[in-house]
Amino acid sequence: MSQITHGRVPSGFAARIAVDLDVTRALDIIAAAIREQKCILFLGAGAHAPPPRDSPHDYPEEQRPPLGAALSRALAEGCDLAGRFPGEDPDNLQRVALFYEIGGSRHQLVESVRSAVHDGKRPSPMLHALAEMGFPLIITTNFDQHFETALGAAGRQPRIAVYTPNRDEPTVDHREPTADSPVVFKIHGDITRPETIVLTDEDYIQFVLRMSSKDPYDPVPLTLKFYLAGWTTVFLGYSLLDYNLRLLFKTLRWRIDSANVPDMYSVDYHPDPLIFDVWHNQRRYVKFIAQDVWSFVPSMYKLVLDKELEP
User: Fold this and answer.
1) Are strands 287-290 and 3-4 parallel, antiparallel or unpaired?
2) Which of 265, 276, 272 is nearest to 300 (CA)?
3) What is the mean pLDDT of residues 64-71?
4) Which residues sit opposite 117 in a β-bridge?
5) Given a cut of 50, is residue 158 above it in pLDDT?
6) Coil, strand, or helix at residue 11?
7) How many whole angstroms separate alpha carbon 21 and alpha carbon 72?
8) What would you measure as the largest C-alpha separation in the chain, in angstroms?
9) Which residues of 144-176 are buried (b: 16+ CB within 10 A; e: fewer)?
10) What is the pTM (predicted TM-score) of this model?
11) Using an 8 Å Cβ cutoff, are 291 and 19 in contact?
12) Which tens digit of pLDDT belongs to each residue from 117-141?
């Protein structure tokens, strides 16, 4: 069932009406923000998830980048993690990536990731639909360039800003994002620039340290900070159970008064109960929409563009 999740919802028919009204209102708010070009898309790897069995849309496995755990297991096999370090968790991507780098090299790690997530892969129908909708500002932790490809196919000309761990490199700040010329901020790096990738435990430590840099070396552009404080944000392809995402989220919103934080929505089919209680019920950071990508995107596409998303 598609719904906005609640901490406590009355049972029975009244609850069903309340939930339906809430999800309808949430979708209307997001659609209006997209049409007004005042919505930020926060795009994660879950946007590459396979379609459900009953979906009219197709996304063959050979075209899909692997999700986090699958990528981690592939890297674990590539560095013989089980043989060299029995007992290590092959699904812990940051730790496995560090083992891979230490056992080989940074170059070998990045090339393996590139081969897995980028080479021979294609944007999903959902990415193409999102590109058509006209988000002016996209923040992504994805290393691949599939959304940029989808934007180009939609006739848009994205401007790309990429995080760098180099404290002496001024931050690129693209101004005035629009639907036709959107800004894509790749906050965990780009696969074509190996030095920018945030993947291992050590990369994440350096990433947090970089967040203390001052302008013009602050890795988060001023334009991005400005719009984060004023525009609706939609998290798509993430689970807030991910510790690093929550760390990133709080880092980006340092020094923003909670009273001034605009609406934020997380499209998360199975929100973790503890995270939901903290982020939704107690602190009211985020409203959760319990849908998967393949349900949410076609609904939003219809509301924004007033037409059905064809298979």
Assistant:
1) antiparallel
2) 265
3) 94
4) none
5) yes
6) coil
7) 40
8) 60
9) bbbbbbbbeebebebeebbbbbeeeeebebbee
10) 0.88
11) no
12) 999 999 999 999 999 999 999 999 9
Alpha helices in the chain (DSSP H): 13-35, 68-78, 81-84, 93-103, 106-117, 125-133, 146-153, 201-210, 222-228, 243-252, 273-276, 293-305
Distance CA 300, CA 77 (A): 39
Q: pLDDT for 232-279, tens place per residue?
A: 999 999 887 777 677 777 666 655 555 566 788 889 887 777 777 776
Residue 279 CA to residue 288 CA, distance in Å, equals 9
The pLDDT > 90 percentage for the chain reads 61
For residue 161, list its beta bridge partners.
185
Please report the pLDDT score of residue 256 as a whole number: 59
Distance, CA of 130 to CA of 116 (rounded, Å): 23
Q: Give the span between the Cα atoms of 129 and 136, in whole angstroms.
A: 14
Beta bridge partners of 193: 190
**Phi and psi angles of residue 265, each rounded to the nearest 5 degrees, phi first:** -130, 140
Distance in angstroms (rounded) separating the CA atoms of residues 46 and 286: 18
Q: Kindly report each contact of residues 112-117 with a partner whose C-beta sits within 8 Å and lies 24 or more positions away, as own/partner.
A: 112/74, 112/75, 112/78, 113/71, 113/75, 113/143, 113/191, 113/197, 113/199, 114/143, 114/191, 116/65, 116/66, 116/71, 116/74, 117/65, 117/66, 117/71, 117/142, 117/143, 117/144, 117/191
Cis peptide before 65 (omega within 30 of 0): no
